[in-house]
Design the sequence.
């Protein structure tokens, strides 16, 4: 019995499927959007929009923001990736966001139970936390572009921490304004980078 499948048509289809899977496995747009939005939201707690929030409540909010926000963001990425995998009919692969999310939650639980001072990184150097998570995702998913954004976020986070320390104990709040504006610009730049990455992903798919 002769096959009705034309090999000349089958090869391009397989190539397109491989390209789509590669684009999904190495996608950078989704995590960039998620962490860009989270970075934009952080100054609401840390900046002048905090308003009459008591100092104790503010400190707790700053301490809990990145651990909780990161968990929520990773869960959102996990469910979005599962939806895409079911829609396109391809597996999520061994390096999906589910594995990354579970490992993050286990690490966070250990940090809390052992009372490790890592949580205070989110207060004194807030951008270092998302930079570390982005770097871990970049390593986990072999994503070079995501690794570059992690490096940029880490460098800016370290600089922002130095400026915040320099502004502490002074009457001039100008340094803090620079930190808030810088965080907002980074969040917007990350979302813009996600839009460009998305265009490349669509072209590859």
Sequence:
């Amino acid at each position: 019995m002769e096959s009705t499948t034309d090999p000349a048509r089958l090869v391009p289809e397989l190539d397109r499927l491989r390209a789509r899977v590669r684009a999904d496995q190495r996608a950078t747009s989704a995590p960039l959007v998620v962490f860009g939005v989270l970075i934009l939201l952080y100054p609401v707690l840390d900046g002048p929009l905090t308003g009459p929030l008591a100092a104790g409540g503010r400190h707790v909010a700053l301490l809990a923001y990145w651990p909780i926000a990161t968990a929520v963001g990773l869960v959102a990425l996990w469910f979005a990736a599962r939806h895409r995998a079911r829609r396109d009919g391809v597996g999520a692969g061994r390096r999906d966001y589910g594995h990354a999310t579970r490992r993050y939650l286990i690490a966070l639980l250990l940090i809390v139970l052992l009372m490790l001072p890592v949580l205070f990184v989110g207060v004194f150097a807030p951008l270092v936390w998302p930079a570390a998570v982005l770097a871990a995702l970049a390593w986990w998913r072999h994503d070079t572009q995501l690794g570059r954004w992690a490096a940029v976020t880490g460098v800016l986070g370290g600089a922002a921490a130095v400026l915040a320390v320099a502004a502490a104990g002074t009457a001039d709040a100008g340094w803090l304004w620079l930190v808030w504006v810088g965080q907002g610009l980074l969040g917007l730049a990350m979302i813009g980078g996600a839009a460009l990455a998305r265009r490349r992903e669509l072209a590859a798919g």
Q: What stands out?
A: Residues 49-53 have pLDDT under 50 and may be disordered. The chain has eight helices and no strands.
